Amino acid sequence: MLQAAGLEAGENPDLLSLTDPELIESIHLKYIEAGSDIFYCNTFGANRLKLAKTGKTPAEVISAAVKIANSAKTKASRTAYCALDVGPIGQLLEPNGTMLFDEAYDIFKEMILAAEGADIIVIETMTDLLEAKAALLAAKENSDLPVMVTMTFEQNMRTFTGCCIESMAMTLSGLGADAIGINCSLGPRELKPAVDKLCSCTGLPVIIKPNAGLPDPLTNEYNVLPEEFGQLLADMIPLGIKIAGGCCGTTPDYIRAARKAFEGKKYQPREFTPVSAVCTASNAVIIDCPRIIGERINPTGKKRFKQALQEHDLDYICNQAIEQIDAGAEILDVNVGLPGIDEKEMMLSAVRAVQGICDTPLQLDSSIPEVLDAALRVYNGKPIINSVNGEEKSLSSILPLVKKYGAAVVGLCLDEDGIPKTIEGRVAIAEKICKRADALGIPRSDICIDCLTLTCSAEQEAAMQTIEALRICKEKLGVRTVLGVSNISFGLPQREIVNRTFLTMALTKGLDLPIMNPNIASMTSAVRAYRLLANIDKNAQEYVANYGGETPAAAAPAVKQEDMTLGYAMSHGLKSDAAAITAKLLETTDAMEIVNGILIPELDKTGAEFEKGKIFLPQLILTAGVAQSCFEVIKEHLSKTGGGGVSNGTIVICTVKGDVHDIGKNIVKVLLENYGYTVIDLGKDVDPMLVVKTAKEHNVKLVGLSALMTTTLKGMEETIRLLRENHQCKVMVGGAVLTPDYAQQIGADYYAKDAKQSCDIAKEVFGQ
Amino acid sequence: MDYEINIAEAVRYMGYGGLTPDEGQMKLIADCAAELKEYIKPAWIYRLFPIEETADGVLLRGTSLTLGGSDIKEHLAGCHSCVLFCATAGAKADELIRMKEKEDMVQGYITDCLASAAAEGLCDALEAELADKLPGKYLTWRYSPGYGDLSLEVQPKVLAVLEAGKRAGVSCTDSLLMIPRKTVTAVIGVSDTPIVKKRQGCSKCNMKDKCTFRKAGEHCGS
Question: Is the full-model pTM beyond 0.80?
Answer without folding.
Answer: yes
